[in-house]
Design brief:
It contains 5 helices and 5 strands; from the N terminus they run βαβααβαββα. It is α/β, with parallel strands linked by helices. Strands 3-2-1-4-5 form a 5-stranded parallel sheet. It binds [cytidine-5'-phosphate] glycerylphosphoric acid ester. The site of [cytidine-5'-phosphate] glycerylphosphoric acid ester (C2G) has 18 residues, from β1, α1 and β4.
């Protein structure tokens, strides 16, 4: 059983997120997603349209996601990797290099981001500004 771990806000879930989650799942058998809490979003200077509970409900409907855990701090990743016996840590390559320290605990893979789609762009479009 190969366990995969990734993190994110996943606000206004779009095909760029799904591309990431699908590729991450296909790297193993079981995908755990650390979903940023509303408080952690503040630490990331990110404002999400949907609350943690709403984003969790939407993400739970994704066939590639097996377990959702709260992401509350930057530091929890090493503990999560040990706790969930993670084999591969995956992030989009906008984070390339930022989590290389985790190579001491598991494989680290940065996947190409899906171009031309983002939660912020989608929100602007919904508001009619695009
Ligand atoms: N992503 C992608 N393509 C896009 C948009 C996002 O591949 N067009 C990926 C990001 O690279 C990330 C994941 O989807 O791996 C989730 O993106 P966000 O919700 O924006 O997450 P982020 O704010 O980058 O949070 O500790 C890590 C952070 O919580 C990551």
């Amino acid at each position: 059983m190969k366990n995969i771990l990734t993190y994110g806000t996943f606000d206004v879930l779009h095909y760029g997120h799904i591309n990431l989650l699908q590729r991450a799942k296909f790297l193993g058998d079981y995908l755990i997603v650390g979903l940023s809490t509303d408080n952690f979003n503040k630490l990331k200077n990110k404002k999400s349209l949907y609350s943690f509970e709403q984003r969790k409900l939407i993400l739970e409907a994704c066939r590639y996601v097996d377990l959702i855990i709260p992401e509350e701090t930057w530091e929890q990743k090493t503990e999560d990797i040990k706790k969930y016996n993670i084999d591969v840590f995956v992030m989009g390559n906008d984070w390339a290099g930022k989590f290389d320290y985790l190579k001491n605990y598991c494989e680290v893979i940065y996947l190409p981001r899906t171009p031309d789609v983002s939660s912020s762009k989608t929100k602007l479009y919904i508001k009619g500004n695009l």
